[in-house]
Amino acid sequence: MDKEQDNLISISEFAELSSITRPNLIFYDREGILKPVVRNSNRYRLYDYKQLDQAYVITFMRSMGVSIKEIKSYFQNRSAESAYELLGSHVTLIEKQIYNLENLKHSMEIYLHNIQQFKHVVTPKFEIVHKAKEHINLSPVILSEEIDTVLDFLRACKKNDIDYHGHTGRIFTKNSMIHKKWDKADRIFFKSYSGKNEIKRGTYLEYLDYTDGSDIGQLYQNVYDYIQENRLEISGNTYEDYPISGISIRNSGNHLIRISVAIKETD
After folding, report:
1. Is the N or the C terminus of the chain less surrounded, counting Cβ atoms within 10 Å?
2. What is the three-class DSSP state of 261?
3. How far apart are CA 121 and CA 239, in angstroms?
4. β-strands 197-199, 134-138: how paired?
């Protein structure tokens, strides 16, 4: 090796310093993305340490999901404008991924909370509870049959790139609950870290029971009767969580339902 090559780096050392595997360095060489500065008499690839900066840029771009074709084009037509445009578009993509991951994390936290809270619940159960605010996404006001509306809601979520991870529920207004209109929900919701609407904090009558869905009307009648017998005053919406994620009776079609009715707090 002559003196000019004394400060050059072998492909093995360059791979170690750049955290790019040797096969990938050979691939990048063939693609013209990151070529060695010289090949010695034994055809060994040798790199200049200053090429590490380019290697880091390639690794950074690949981690952002930039394609080989885009990277090649970037290095062939390098400019501040092209770099800004390329990286800016992928920053937007990363922000979307972060948004989706936050929603997924929130969804998993709901699953864990449900399992911990309800794994030993004895039903049927009535309880006055104080709820914290929860973020949700809402459907449009329901004008058609419920099943069509649920499907339309989920399709709208997909169309508008709203990340959906379950935890769907139904909403009945104060008026619907008072007049026992339980055949069709007023709104559909799902819980979301980034939901634009909310379940208001406050005092609720909470009813828990297991059902296969065929007797939900009777369950609402149970809630209505309890409210009348205990002289409670409905003050807002009723929220139905069914099925409560992660909670079911083994080897049966019964899942846990929670009906939460906003009530006026008594002194």
Report:
1. C
2. strand
3. 19
4. antiparallel
> Is-contact 29 45, C-beta < 8 A?
yes
Pairwise CA distance, residues 267 & 264, whole Å: 10
Residues forming a β-bridge with 202? 131
Residue 124: asked if its preceding bond is cis (omega within 30°), the reply is yes
Q: Are residues 111 and 225 in the same domain?
A: yes
Question: For the whole model, what pTM was predicted?
Answer: 0.68
Measured distance CA(129)–CA(44) in Å, rounded: 73
Q: Which residues of 213-235 are buried (b: 16+ CB within 10 A; e: fewer)?
A: eeebeebbebbbeebeeeebebe
Domain extent, residue 209, equals: 103-263
Mean predicted confidence (pLDDT) in 240-264: 83
Same domain as 249, residue 146: yes
Instruction: Provide the strand spans (E) within the chain.
Output: 9-10, 38-39, 45-47, 125-131, 134-138, 168-172, 187-191, 197-199, 202-211, 234-241, 255-263
Dist CA 77 CA 72 (whole Å): 9
What integer is the mean pLDDT of 24-51? Answer: 89
Q: Starting at the earlier edge strand, list the strands of the sheet with 38-39.
A: 9-10, 45-47, 38-39
The answer as to whether 117 is a domain residue is: yes
pLDDT digits (tens, 9 = 90+) for 117-135: 888 889 999 999 999 999 8
